[in-house]
Amino acid sequence: MIRGLCKSDQPIAALHMFGKMRQQGFHGNNLTFIFIFKACVQLSDIVVGRAVHVNVLKLGYQSYLYVCNTLIYLYGSCGDLAGARIVFDEMSDRDLVSWNSLICGYSQCNRFREVLSLFGSMQAENVKADAVTLVKVVLACSHIGDIDTVDFVAKYIEDNCVRIDVYLGNTLIDMYGRRGLVFLAEEVFAKMEERNVVSWNAMIMAYAKAGDLMAARELFDKMHNRDVISWTSMITGYCQANRFSEGIALFQEMMAIKVKPDEITVASVLSACAHLGTLDVGKAVHDYVRQHGIKMDIYVGNALVDMYCKCGSVNTALEVFFSMNRKDTVSWTSIISGLAVNGFHDNALQLFSQMLEERCKPTHGTFIGVLLACTHAGLVDKGLEYFDCMEKHHGLVPEMKHYGCVVDLLCRSGNLNRAFEFISLMPMTADVVLWRMLLSACKLHGNVVLAEIAANKLLQLDPGNGGNYVLSSSTYATAERWDDAMKIRQLMNDDAVQRPLGWSSIEVNAIV
């Protein structure tokens, strides 16, 4: 009865039955205690487990191998690794299950170095590991980045003819995929006698991470049974490779066959919509989230804010932002940057102040948004003040993009000499973007002297970019120095530099 109840969906009834048995004067035997400990595992009841352990010691059943193995499993599952280790160390006889039970306990509690230490002890005592052991060892290696042990495990599997079951195979494919070793993942996939949907998904993700989307799609199309992770892996792969249109098309195909997306799918598709500016699709996805009860976690919320901002729908972005139960730095950065880019500079700076009041630490990305807001508002002194406080108050060393924002701020306000001086005093060498900003501003304000300096720098740093020649020529033309303008045009022809092409995009019926 205890065994049957232990295996049912009411393990607590097994404990009640054990209590009744003891009331009638029966103490139980080694099998009884094995099933009681298993019931305690299902209930995560370490208190009853310890009490029954005392009975085991009183009755002398601690010498039974299977009883001790189940005890280690109980203590490890409930997080009492000290208790599990005591039982393990006091065992006069151990088998592979003993080692695996303790290793699984350490793995479950994220004590990965102890997992590898135990694996080493197993080798020292000539205990042959099986697939269960090696799954935990590979997972431990993945978490702590121990590549050498992973390579040893691969050789160990081959030397000891360890059968690669579906769990070990999936773990190895995932590990090799994360390392970008697709050819090794393919070898494991080919050797597996049994595969499940996780195996196929792991292989698709391995191909996607390596950028081989053709192989990933070929495998995806071959799958007989796909789950939401299969679709999400393929969609995310397209998005990570900047093939956003294909990602959205696959999502629409997923919707057509009634596969319900999860939070990761939704976040990936919204990111694609943000990059393409497909507001209609983004809105449709948002409506689907609300209608079908998909969890509105922080990642979906952030993706929605980013999408609406990049599509110019700022009011909706603000509604989503303020409706979020939890916000992180990404949430604040997305809304601040979105407001700045769309011209709502006052709101952006107000939200930045609110962010600091709520003790949310800004990042480099946050200050990009703040500096952009100052640039569009023409707040030169305020922008320089924010730039200075990055390192002084927040410990953030400005990067090239922050210097670019300041140069843009000074150039837009007509402070060209100040912008040139700022570039000259930078602790790093200015890139082509900064010099192009200065050259563009010189054209606008007719400053030929600085334009020549900026143009020479650009022709040194980026001689193949036709835009630099066009800007320089236009600056001379604005100052009516036609001979110099023609020289630049001739130089462009002599060097066979391609003229830059302009392009635009428009969304029609959800297609860009």
Automatic annotation (TrEMBL):
PROSITE patterns: PPR. InterPro entries: E_motif, PPR_At4g14850-like_plant, PPR_rpt, TPR-like_helical_dom_sf. PPR repeats lie at residues 95-129, 196-226, 227-261, 297-327, 328-362. One of its GO terms (biological process) is RNA modification. GO terms for molecular function: RNA binding. Pfam families: E_motif, PPR, PPR_1, PPR_2. Keywords: Repeat. This is Pentatricopeptide repeat-containing protein, mitochondrial. It comes from Nicotiana attenuata (Coyote tobacco). The gene is PCMP-E28_2.
